[in-house]
Design a protein that fits this description.
Number of helices: 16
Mean pLDDT: 94
Strand content: under 5%
Largest sheet: 2 strands, antiparallel
Low-confidence stretches: none
Strand order of the largest sheet: 1-2
Number of strands: 4
Structural class: mainly alpha
Number of domains: 1
Distance between the termini: 65 Å
Helix content: 55-70%
Length: 369
């Protein structure tokens, strides 16, 4: 029992340290997936999108190397499971994309902005956490379950490597390096095709570091957090995570878990997990960089409409993120790093939701001008 508790504490500490790095880098490099979509729609500027794609390529390469080497078993994570609730993924991802646009950033970006003194992000995070908790096990859970009832089943798991292996009539290990390698090379080719981005060392470094942080999360939870024989069950176990599985960075569910932990502080059933540590570490890391670079300043709502949009955005992100089982980081980088088909679907649904919302907002501004 004591050994499992020590391992769990190590996992939590590892998540916190990795999140400090994530928060610091995201604050310094202005890492924002909503901003990436907005830059493309309004200015045809792909710089921040290339940074996001570089993080994804790094995460795919690193995570699959860990899996192929037997260091971490990605198939034990929640992403490549047998069931793919595609309707929930599409609807949840699209609503999340709408929400993060209305709220001026996704869950991770809201934490980073809060670290810089943005009080609007505090309101967003509170409503996001409340809506996420209601979607997990509250009033919105029936709607989530209704959307999740329509699902596809993949007997071998829904990751892309298994799917192609089944079609070719071969084993997963035979095609996984080629599939992962081809995707990584394709993404890197697109990212570095742009001469201006090739000269942007800060964003290149940020994309690589954020991808490596996600890989580090897999290692901490899937390797360091693995217990061959749990004292309670006498079976293999992963400790320190909410799901009792290997995890990496994600923000929507952990935001709800953080709120619950703060509400029940002192209760023996309330425990710190990897996800909660990631939320707190991201906030503190971004705050430290904002103060160090003298970028910390208080910011609040400009109008009632601004307040309304941010509250609505937080609610949509909380519901959409839980329904889609992740966010721009949780599904867009962490999930995609496992090559799960559902994560890839959510990735495009989020971009679609954000792109539609940005387009409508931009047209409204042009009409007003």
């Amino acid at each position: 029992m004591e050994n499992s508790a020590q391992v769990a504490a190590l996992v939590v500490f590892g998540g916190f340290v990795l999140a400090l790095v994530f928060g610091a880098v995201a604050q310094k490099a202005d890492f924002c997936t909503m901003g990436a979509v907005a830059d493309i729609v309004t200015m045809d500027d792909w710089a921040r999108m290339r940074m996001w794609l570089l993080a994804i390529a790094t995460a795919i390469g690193g995570a699959n190397l860990l899996d192929l080497a037997g260091v971490v078993d990605l198939s034990r994570s929640a992403y490549p499971g047998a069931y793919c609730p595609w309707l929930a993924y599409v609807c949840g991802g699209f609503l999340f994309g709408v929400g993060m646009t209305l709220a001026s950033g996704c869950g991770s970006r809201s934490l980073v902005r809060l670290g810089g003194g943005n009080l609007k992000s505090l309101v967003v995070l509170l409503f996001l956490a409340l809506a996420a908790a209601m979607t997990l096990h509250g009033a919105l859970a029936p709607l989530r379950e209704f959307l999740g009832a329509l699902a596809l089943r993949f007997d071998q798991g829904q990751d892309l490597s298994w799917t192609i292996a089944v079609l070719l009539g071969t084993g997963k290990r035979g095609v996984q390096p080629w599939i992962a390698g081809a995707i990584v090379l394709g993404l890197l080719g697109f990212v570095f095709r742009d001469r201006v981005f090739r000269a942007d060392r800060e964003r290149i470094a940020a994309g690589i570091v954020i991808g490596l942080v996600v890989v580090g999360g897999w290692y901490v939870t899937g390797r360091l957090g693995f217990v061959p024989e749990d004292p309670e069950t006498l079976q293999e176990a992963y400790v320190g995570t909410r799901t009792a599985r290997p995890e990496s960075f994600t923000y929507i569910g952990p935001a709800a878990n953080t709120l619950e932990l703060l509400q029940s502080w002192g209760n023996k059933s309330a425990v710190m997990t990897f996800g909660v540590a990631v939320v707190l570490g991201t906030l503190i890391g971004s705050f430290a960089v904002a103060v160090f670079r003298r970028r910390f300043h208080w910011e609040t709502f400009a109008s009632v409409a601004d307040t309304r949009n941010h509250i609505a955005g937080g609610i949509l992100m909380g519901f959409g993120g839980v329904t889609a089982a992740g966010c721009t980081i949780g599904q867009g980088i962490t999930g995609v790093s496992t090559l799960a088909l559902g994560s890839i679907l959510v990735f495009f649904a989020i971009i679609a939701g954000s792109a539609v919302t940005v387009t409508l907002q931009y047209r409204r501004l042009l009409r007003a001008a």
